[in-house]
Amino acid sequence: MDGSIDTARQWGTLMKTLVTASAIVALASALGGEEVKIGYIDSGRIFTEYRGTADIETQLNEELRSWQGEERTRLGEIEQLEAQLESQRLMLSDESQRTKQTEIDRKRREYQEYVQGVWGPGGLLEQRNIELTQPIIERINVAIEKIASAEHYTMVLDIADGFVVYAVPGLDVTDKVIEELNREFEPLLAAGEKLKLAVFDVHEADKMARELGYGEQITQFLEAALVATNLFELVRGDDFQRAMTENMVVRTDEQIELSVALDVGRDARAEVILLSEVSVTPSEIEIESVLYDVMTGRELAQGRGTAANEEELESAVSVLTGSILEKVRL
Fold this sequence. Notes:
This protein is an alpha/beta fold.
């Protein structure tokens, strides 16, 4: 059995290598005289050395401990009922014994269903692992695409998939990908530098906000407050308008989608973008803003401010801005 498994694995690796080699040859042929530049990564190393995976592991372990605690509690209840039945068996009638055994059987079925629902195929553990790792995978893909585009790679392979059996070290871009990913844990700004910021029009989230027209006023307050920190340089004018036009963004009552806003930010050469909305009730004006990293799409910080009336809007924006600055790594 062991030998057949190893042989199958070796055969699979060989076939992958041959298929990949054929694909590379076909690609080179299709590109004609164009230079083909191929690099590779080790996704296993990237997952291990990317600092963003630590939070996911911690969160998954916390949830796992909760599931394990529930599993032990359910199993303990079954064992307690079985012990009670055994100790009372001589005093119980046949009908009472059957009733207790039926309850034990029911709890054991529920226990097995719980275990399967958490640890089985498609269970909670698998689902949460996918949910938590998907954003990481997307960030890794963005980093790979950025490096591949900047250094003109035609193709980037993953040696963790067994597609590469030999390559010269100079083609390995793993370290570059890891370095790019871990930039998010470094200070956003060096001394004296400013972040290029694109501030989108504040979305008026409800009918009352639209009727009062607070969006434009709050947008101006936000721009002024952030520029006053001397940490941001606003991207505006022709560059911003051109990026909006190229991405077919028109002013509507709908909030701009994050993916579209990130595309606009990249095209406008911004490093971060700010998306905000205002909602109004008879007793309160609420403003919420979120700052995003344009390259990764990662949320960097968020802030909230409230005002009782229009006269307090600027003060609410000041509170919101202060909250954002506290959370941004500077």
